[in-house]
Design brief:
Beta Polymerase, domain 2, MAB21L/cGLR, Mab-21_HhH/H2TH-like, Mab-21-like HhH/H2TH-like domain-containing protein, Poly(a)-polymerase, middle domain, two-stranded antiparallel sheet, 16 helices, six-stranded mixed β-barrel, 477 residues, 3 domains, 14% strand, alpha+beta, globular
Length: 477
């Protein structure tokens, strides 16, 4: 971010935000140039905040390797897949919860009409029964007991009035969550399909799931006319399986026995195929929801925003999403969010018949308040980002300090990611890591050096924070 740019006045060391000119009587072209210049500088700010393409790729690569290393220890049993903001490369190590999906590998769910005869005899088969469920939800009817069928599945089976066995989602989660936690693990209340846990600064949302083959849903999605994603990405998403997770439709009287159909790995691919401008729109809109609208009961979520951005990308020509047009598209995103709130309608990107705003729990007062807030934000133009604490702090910071701390944060985060995977690589058969590994010790030494450098700089700047571990954790939050 250059000194004296759109956001700053060079008159003093505190770099007062320049407000003049935004609402003045300039020509349309001059007004457009102002927005374009502000957009370019905002893209630079987003890069220094840790949302640039290189750090996103490094994070994605880490979680892919981490999943591979951990899954190698549990071949044929449970497969872990990291999803959400961590898999998208959009959050620092301790910045938000890690969303991990645990897929039981000896269970397969099939769209009605698929046989499954070619699957191994160990595999238990369920059929998706969607007839009496809201769009994107289903019952799991037992089709075949595999030889690996276990007591957990058996305990969660129920029979309907026709004698058919189906899997109760609530019972299944309850049974699995009754296992004894580790000594340093704290378990929290269930949230939808997720079972949140924490160990120190590390917070994880665990979601139990089964793989699912539903070609008709994916084919219908693939055949839509679109500007995005590219055909090769469409085919890759189609090639990836869906998953069912243990959560029913909020408005259903049978929600305790229902399961939700999702496309987590496919959605990871979709986020990866967004260009930089689209990613920045996604991140800023998430900040608007979290820091300004502040929903208490998840009436609006980051998942809502993700789907909104997917639709924005699909419905518009990709060459229009440039760094000079960031604020134009951010306002378009706010318009779409306003529409979703005022109409309580937003289609799920993969299954448009499912309305993500249906039964979201938003009351009329919230609706009016949030629509008014979004109108106010749109009237602010580029200055709306000053209402977002993380971005405001970066804008008003001295560029030299922002650059220095940003470099240390990126290096520390990358080293921590490497350290975590190296610990897995160094594990012996007994599960204990070989801490004498030279590469591991080199990484740990540099991590310690960075944290001490940051502490020294903070002391020089008058900070009272002195604990190395506290500094380490705060950098990565």
């Amino acid at each position: 971010m250059a000194e004296g740019g759109y956001w700053h006045d060079e008159s003093g060391p505190e770099y007062v935000i320049r407000r003049s000119g935004i609402y003045s009587q300039h020509s349309q072209r001059q007004f457009q140039v102002q927005w374009e210049n502000a957009s370019v500088e905002m893209c630079n700010v987003m890069t220094w905040l840790g949302f640039g393409p290189h750090i996103r790729k490094a994070r994605r690569d880490f979680y892919m390797e981490n999943n591979m290393l951990l899954n190698a220890q549990h071949l044929g049993k449970v497969k872990m897949i990291t999803t959400g903001s961590k898999a998208e490369g959009l959050t620092c190590l301790y910045e938000s919860d890690v969303d991990n999906m645990y897929v039981k590998e000896d269970v397969m769910c099939l769209e009605d009409g698929l046989s499954g005869d070619m699957l191994p005899k160990e595999t238990t088969l369920f059929t998706l029964n969607t007839g009496s469920c809201y769009h994107g939800h289903c019952w799991l009817l037992l089709k075949r007991r595999g030889t690996a069928f276990n007591q957990t599945l058996s305990n969660a089976l129920c029979d309907d009035e026709n004698g058919r066995s189906f899997l109760n989602s609530d019972v299944y989660v309850t049974v699995l969550n009754s296992t004894t936690p580790t000594s340093d693990e704290v378990r929290h209340s269930r949230a939808g399909p997720s079972m949140p846990t924490s160990i120190g600064a590390y917070h994880q949302d665990r979601v139990l799931s089964f793989a699912c083959d539903c070609p008709s849903i994916l084919q219908k999605w693939a055949e839509r006319r679109r500007n995005w994603p590219a055909p090769d990405i469409v085919q890759k998403v189609v090639s990836l399986r869906a998953f069912v997770t243990p959560v029913g439709y909020k408005g259903s009287e049978n929600r305790a026995v229902e399961w939700r159909i999702g496309f987590n790995t496919g959605e990871n691919e979709l986020v990866s195929s967004l260009n930089n401008t689209q990613v920045y729109i996604y991140v800023i809109l998430k900040m608007v929801v979290k820091d300004i609208l502040k929903p208490i009961n998840k009436e609006i979520t980051s998942y809502t925003v993700k789907n909104l951005v997917f639709w924005l990308a699909e419905n518009n020509h990709q060459e229009l999403f440039t760094e000079r047009n960031l604020f134009h598209w951010l306002c378009e995103g706010l318009k779409e969010l306003r529409t979703a709130l005022s109409t309580t309608k937003l289609s799920y990107y993969m299954i448009p018949e499912r309305n993500l705003m249906d039964s979201c729990g938003m009351n009329e007062k919230q609706q009016r308040t949030w629509v008014a807030i979004i109108n106010e934000l749109m009237n602010e133009g580029p200055l709306l980002v000053l209402k977002l604490p993380k971005i405001r702090q970066a804008i008003v910071s001295h560029p030299v300090s922002l650059f220095w701390y940003g470099q240390r944060r990126f290096e520390l985060e990358l080293l921590m990611l490497k350290c975590m995977n190296r610990l897995e690589q160094c594990k012996a058969a007994d599960g204990i890591s070989n801490t004498s590994d030279s590469m591991l010790n080199s990484i740990l030494t540099r991590i310690d050096q960075i944290v001490r450098e940051v502490r020294q700089r903070m002391i020089e700047e008058g900070s009272c924070v002195n604990e190395l571990m506290e500094i380490h954790n705060r950098i990565l939050m």
